Amino acid sequence: MARDTDIRLVTIRDVWKVANNCVSAGDEPTALGVDERTFQTIDAAITAAQNGDEKITFYDVPDGANSVMFTAIGITNDDDYSVDIYSGTLGTTVSKARGDSIDCDMTHIGTLAFIFGLQESSTSGSLMAQSVTATSKDSTATLISKGTVDSDRTCEASIDLQGADVLVIVPTICDSDSKLLAKGF
Q: Are 147 and 156 in contact (CB under 8 A)?
């Protein structure tokens, strides 16, 4: 005979949020060097805003999320938008870490390379990415992508966070104004 319990498996249902807003004008940041891969060092580079570093962004992983899904929107068909993604565990939010000088090491999870298609986005004047190629780097985190070039459909990529609570987004190619969208689940 089955017993009633209060245990439930719940998947959070987050909405898409802008994780990176890359304006094509100006330089893109260079890849983070081995001496630049801590939260506080990256935060200082963003604040200094030199050589494109102001385009680097932090993404607070929503409480309860084990993974993050990504897609992108841009303004020009067939343009490229690529981002390097780093993960870390602060144990708190980005804004609190900045105020308290909390630091953590950042691991290069991988690179997402998007190509935009013709499908219009619900964001006025924007087109959805039609393909994404995910390339894993220095982490055991699982990076999965789905989408086909010239399909003019949407694409997505996801990352199993393995406990990370903050992501760093470094745009490396931004052919036209583009946004990386993210949601935890």
A: yes
Burial class (CB in 10 A: 0-12, 13-18, 19+), 132: buried
Q: Which stretch of DSSP H or E encloses residue 40? A: helix 39-48
> How many degrees, rounded to 5, is the angle at CA 11 between CA 139 and CA 151?
65
81 touches 174 (CB < 8 A): yes
Spatial separation of the C-alpha atoms in residues 90 and 96, rounded to whole Å: 10
Of 9-13, 16-20, 69-73, 85-89, which range is least confident? 9-13
Residue 15 has pLDDT above 80, yes or no: yes
Q: How many residues does the chain have?
A: 185
CA distances 12 to 25, 42, 52, 181, 185, Å, are: 36, 29, 34, 17, 5
- Spatial distance between the Cα atoms of 113 and 34, rounded to a whole number of angstroms: 22
Give the strand pairing for 178-184 and 143-146. Answer: unpaired
**How many CA atoms lie within 13 Å of 98's alpha carbon, on the beta-carbon side?**
12
Query: With the C-alpha atoms ordered 173, 135, 170, 21, is the resulting torsion angle positive or negative?
Result: positive
